[in-house]
Amino acid sequence: MTSKTFRRIIAATAAIASATLLAACAGGGSSGGGGGGTSGNDLGLPNLKGQTLNVSADWSGAEQKDFEAVLKVFEKATGATVDYKSLGNNVATVLGTQITGGNPPNVSLIPQPGLLKQLAADGSLKTLPSSVTKTVDANYSQTWQDLGKVDGKPYGVWFKGSNKSTVWYNTQLYKNAGIDEPKTWDQFTKDMQTLQDSGVSGLSIGADVGWPLTDWFENVYLRTAGGDMYDKLANHEIPWTDPSVTKALDILKDLWSADYIEPGGAQRSFGDAVTEVFGANPKAATTYEGDFVATNIASDTKTKVGTGAKFYDFPSIDDSPASVVGGGNVAVAFKDDKATMALMKFLAMPEAANAWIPLGGFTSPNQKADTGKYPDATSKQIAQALLSAKVLKFDMSDLAPSAFGGTEGQGEWQILLGFYANPTDVAGVQQKLEAAAAAAYKS
Q1: Residue 135 and residue 100 share a domain
Q2: Which residue range(s) make up the domain with 190?
Q3: Is residue 95 a contact partner of residue 87, using CB atoms and an 8 Å limit?
Q4: Are residue 299 and residue 435 in the same domain, yes or no?
Q5: Per-residue pLDDT tens for 334-360?
Q6: Roughly how many angstroms between the first and final C-alpha of the chain, as a whole number?
Q7: What is the pLDDT of residues 357-416, one digit of tens each?
Q8: Which residues pair with 54 in a beta bridge?
Q9: Burial of 49 (0-12, 13-18, 19+ CB in 10 A)
Q10: Do residue 416 and residue 369 come from a single domain?
Q11: Within this chain, do residues 413 and 431 fall inside the same structural domain, yes or no?
Q12: Is 0.85 surpassed by the pTM of this model?
């Protein structure tokens, strides 16, 4: 692979348009896995005893532990050994280095559709055989099938979905302040001030890296600009200097400069923000992020999800309809041997999703996954919100080129960090965002 190709991977282009996602069910059955004889297991997967597969994703900590539990099901069924490595926040960079060095993993679960498209365009990915695609077709709605394709060819299996429009709160602190779950943005901001007046910060934000701030922007923008404009901005068909972006940033300017925000966000990690709300000595009553907050609550605090910790949908702004920003991880294959494709098939099966669902912090886009296995009513609520949203758009920063929307220390991440630290110059921030986006999409 040339250095030019490597740079293209790092700056993956976002040509997959974010489409409105509506709940749909797919039917049919699955075929045998990857050819060859089976191991006698109930999953119909081949005997892979003595073979080792390398797998990577961006999950670490509790999420890594939970995913490794999924891989153990595959190991038990096939006799294979799976070695997992976390890529952290630098998925494109690490994968690019591995590909350039001729040593990519068998399978990686990446969070960026833009990177999926570029890796496929560069010839780094293997197309999926019918043994995998039949399983995908049987278990996923058409929307998720299409999100795994590039130019009509199947490359990905969307193993993990994410509802990134969930606002999490400490139920006791809300009760103490005499407030309920707000439905509108105006009520939300009033409630944050009420919490502040009650003696605890209304909101804790973790902003030591930029990705949580992109999620804030995307949720506000979707509710103020609507789905069509969201698609246009995601594809850079309108500039970041557009008035619709101005409106969203003005709202965030008011929010991020409010006195009900717990101080120190620029040095606080996302995980620390969760602990500040649900730890033994909470400093704030509310935090915003995706459904994976449940994993952090369970692993880092003694608060129980569903009782002491609950969530409500991201508030409506200007009477916007029920809207969800979604995300997830798509499994892609860098090799096309029997073992690799057996693992890809397994990840498309409900049994793989069912292994993680009861552990919490996981939402499956697999239509055949057992919803009865979600560990609590809150987890089911998350999944239902993801499927029932009138408007559901994929995470915009993940659709963008990695140089703009997915790399620590540059692009949207870094620019929004600066805006969070000093939320004053909206026009200047828009100009910086447009310059960075123009350069990334062009390359």
Answers
A1: yes
A2: 167-324+397-442
A3: yes
A4: yes
A5: 999 999 999 999 999 999 999 999 998
A6: 17
A7: 999 878 998 989 998 899 888 888 888 787 677 787 889 998 888 889 988 899 999 999
A8: 83
A9: exposed
A10: no
A11: yes
A12: no
